Amino acid sequence: MSHTHSKNRRTVKPKSYDYNMVVIGAGAAGLVSAYIASAVNAKVALIEKHKMGGDCLNTGCVPSKALIRSAKMLNYAKRAQDFGFKQAQVDFDFAEVMQRVQRVIQKVEPHDSVERYTQLGVECIQGAARVMSPYHVQVDNKIITTRNIVIATGARPHVPDIQGLQAMNYYTSDTIWDIRQRPERLLVLGAGPIGCELAQSFQRLGSQVTLVGRSGVLNAEDEEVSQLVAESLKQDGVRLLDRHTPIRFEIQNGQKRLLYCHKEDSKECVLEFDAVLLALGRRANVTGFGLEELGVHIGDKGTVQVDGFMRTNFPNIFACGDVAGPYQFTHMASHQAWYVAVNALFSPFKKFKVNYAVVPAATYTDPEVARVGLNEKQARQLGIPYEVTHYGVDDLDRAIADDEDRGLVKVLTVPGKDKILGATIVGAHAGDLLAEFVLAMTHGLGLNKILGTIHIYPTLAEMNKYVAGNWKKAHKPERLLDWLKKFHAWRRA
After folding, report:
1. Is 443 left (phi over 0), alpha (psi -120 to 50) or beta?
2. Quick one: pLDDT at residue 265?
3. Contacts with 113 (C-beta within 8 Å, 6 or more apart), sequence order
4. In sequence order, what are the residues at sequence separation of 6 or more whose Cβ sits closer than 8 angstroms to the Cβ of residue 184?
5. Is 289 helix (H, G, I), strand (E, B) or coil?
């Protein structure tokens, strides 16, 4: 059979299929969609060319949180006097800290392993996939047929086109985990969540870190939130060059240098460094496995274009996770994966539109920043009217006892009502504490319900009740209180 004839055959819909669903990519999105498919007894294949668990397990969430934890322990030792100790010294080896990160990955690995997913009924295939048609996927030299295809190929770190960068042997959030020798002077490009988390951790582990960003620290957040994180980074010793633009890299007398300038001033400045880490966002993996040849639409932001049901322009090809956007969170990949699996397997009988009404996220700096729904910046951009209520963590008994009394809770509500539009928490364990607001927003509960819920004393979670209390104080019924004043005076008479 000629190659052309074989190719034409692959564009024709098969009479029967090897699988109900073939998933390409075994990160969070791929794992969850394959798991759900197998749970409802569909025949599903999961194809991964590299490592099960994808970015989150191997180079993202898991290793970064492990590193942050070690760095935080070291910082507690530096803060010994805050806790009533004269001093505390920690003898550590940087390479051993990085080895611990690998041990944590290995401990989590079984959750995402081939063995586990095989036991769950998923057929795991190791190899590079290529989409040949809406129904045919090639893995190495074998072609399999499927009723539906799920693209869950994730994203990779963005590498900018800056003159001289290629000669720097740069690190990204994918490759920094291989480092075993601590860089004395570390340059971090990008002041978003990844840049801030890693800059703070390396500074605490003994590097002198310079953080360069084109706009402010965590610039998607409100000004006072960014300010708190920036102050904390500076307190740790990070040199902040936010609102600066890199111009070019060079090596002079064997010394690596960055030439940069302030956004409002074209005067060139020089920064010498030993290693550079790129933390400038991530780009979706959409090329090299057949999408462009097939004509799958790619959107303006470089992600696979999907509709509300997570379908591409081919109704049986779906995409979810970082490759589809618009959010690059592991929990969002899992959320989308449910919709993908159900819509792929049960359409046209039943289909569900993905729900982005309540999307939480956290940045694991110290203090942590966690947010769900709108902040003031977004509400203003969208022209949505709001009221804002604050509570300062410096007032909270448990935070004071723990010496973690810095931060805030900030809630946006519909004017005159207790309906929550968004909540931001800055402080210790903010990511965990946000869950109450996520639950409230998901199920339409307002601040009055949070205020009417018993919170254990003394806990950090009380901050959610206290911010609700502040809202209540600002909305007290003045006329009723005036009447009650007269009523009680009358009863005393």
Report:
1. alpha
2. 79
3. 52
4. 207, 208, 274
5. coil
Distance CA 128, CA 177 (A): 24
Top-level class of domain 3-52+113-157+283-346: alpha beta
pLDDT score recorded for residue 124: 97
Record the pTM.
0.93
| CATH 3.50.50.60 segments of the chain | 3-52+113-157+283-346, 165-281
Contact 272, 290 (CB under 8 A): no
Whether pLDDT at 129 is above 80: yes
**In this structure, what is the dihedral angle of CA atoms 315, 321, 326, 328, given to the nearest 10 degrees?**
-170
pLDDT tens-place string over residues 33-83? 999 999 999 999 999 998 999 999 999 999 999 999 999 999 999 999 999
Both ends of the chain: CA-CA distance in Å?
A: 106
Residues pairing with 123 in the sheet: 45
Q: Name the band, by pLDDT with cuts 50, 70 and 90, for residue 204.
A: very high
> Backbone dihedral region of 362: left (phi > 0), alpha (psi from -120 to 50 degrees) or beta?
beta
220, two tokens? 């998607």
Helices (H), 53-110: 54-58, 61-78, 94-108
3-state secondary structure of 465: helix
Token digits for 335? 């959320």
Superfamily of domain 367-474: FAD/NAD-linked reductase, C-terminal dimerisation domain (3.30.390.30)
- DSSP secondary structure string for all residues of 386-436: -EEEEEEGGG-HHHHHTT----EEEEEE-TTS--EEEEEEEETTHHHHTHH
**At which residue do the structure tokens 């001289």 appear?**
164
What sign does the dihedral 9-10-12-18 (CA atoms) show?
Answer: positive
Q: Please say if the pLDDT value at position 312 is more than 60.
A: yes
